[in-house]
Amino acid sequence: MPQNLAQISLAVFALIILLFLQGFGVLGPVIDGSRLAANFAIRPAAAVLEKTRDFTVAFFSVHSLVSQNEILTNKVHSLSAELAEAEQAREENRILREALGFQGETKLNLTPAQVISYDYLNFDQKAILNRGRDDGLAVGDNVVISPGILVGIITDVSGKTSEMELITSSNMAVNGRTTDGNATGIVRGEHGLGLLLDQVSQTESLKKGDKIVTSGLGGKFINNFFVGTVVEIRSGSSELFQTASIIPAADFRNLEIVFVVKR
Question: Per mean pLDDT, which of 22-31, 117-126, 171-180 is the most reliable?
Answer without folding.
Answer: 171-180
